[in-house]
Amino acid sequence: MAVKKFVLEFSEVSSRDAERVGGKNAALGEMIRALKKKRVRVPDGFATTADAFRLFLRENKIDKKIRAEIEHLKKGSKSLTHAGKALRLLFLKGKFPEQVEEQIREAYCELSKRYKKRAVDVAVRSSATAEDLPEASFAGQQETFLNISGEDAVIEACRKCYASLFTDRAISYREEKGFDHLKIALSAGVQKMVRADKAGVMFSIDTESGFPNVVRISAAWGLGEVVVKGAVNPDEYTVFKPLLGKKKTQPILGKSLGDKKRKVVYGRSRAHVTRTVNTTKKERESSVLDDNEIASGRMGVRDREAFRSSNNSASSAESRYRKIGICGEAPSDYPDFAAFLVKSGIDSISINPDRFIETKKIVAKAERKR
User: Fold this and answer.
1) Among 33, 226, 293, 366, who pairs with 339 as Cys (CB 3.0-4.6 Å)?
2) Tens digit of pLDDT for each residue in 28-66?
3) What predicted TM-score, i.e. pTM, was given to this entire model?
4) What CATH number matches the domain at 7-192, 3.90.1150.10, 3.10.300.10, 3.90.850.10, 3.30.1490.20?
5) Residue 209 CA to chain centroid, in angstroms?
6) Residues 337-360: pLDDT tens digits?
7) What is the DSSP-derived secondary structure letter of residue 74?
8) C-beta of residue 201 within 8 angstroms of C-beta of residue 228
9) Which of 214, 41, 18, 207 lies closest to 127, judged by CA?
């Protein structure tokens, strides 16, 4: 008899699996699957399923207690603060079903081996099955835990993710929208951490107006959580897509310097996995991204067909034992494209003399990784 899977690798998940692993993890799985074909590396990981969450509820007999606490809230016999705290405590005191915990531990150990670490550092994120619906958006209401390492710590972070389905904000929002609290499940996504000196968010359209010809970038120092949670006033950049890659043009439409008073960095112990510190005067007064980094926003808009066709051409030539080269200035103008071509198996590329040294270093680095 086949063992039921309560944990799925991101490579097993697609955009069709939002009901199984939540909207965030489904989108992440789709991205990893799509980019892997183009040899673009994304940190790997896995997700617990909605079935794992529901089994946790049943085995800890939490479902009826949730109904009772919500009734107290609706009748006014308990405040939102007290009801929320009681609900989260139900999860924090709960135990993972044996088969679920075993699969989480196995998946984490396998991920550690993949990265050649005894205990790989990961981010553990919440992904609700009701995220980003047409009529409502639950994004950002649950918790994320950064720089987690060790099996026990991962299990505890997953438990805290479950509890965060009942933050005061999430409870209030579901009540306002008329959603049944027990019909929404939560998946915990566990992904290899990326150490970052600077991080942020990039949108391939103007999120306020919907105008499609710009890229909007928000950036701050340290890990990206301060930007995602709105805990800092970040730098803001606007890039005009049609001018990207064109000579003697300036695609950057606007730059706004935020105060960036705080940043999140790695902690110094397992008890304090991350810490929030004040930024320096120089950091507050400096732009997080320089013009070259801002213009690299083209990664969000670059014609995917160029990457796909180049990769297909290289594969076709290789299968016929033929050599293939790429002419033109694109490899020099777009260093990441040059690296992509080398990884795809292109034998030679043309280089702009002005960018020879820079591009040569990039190609050499990409060849070492092949």
Assistant:
1) 366
2) 888 888 777 777 778 899 999 999 999 999 999 999 999
3) 0.73
4) 3.30.1490.20
5) 24
6) 666 666 666 656 655 545 556 666
7) H
8) yes
9) 18
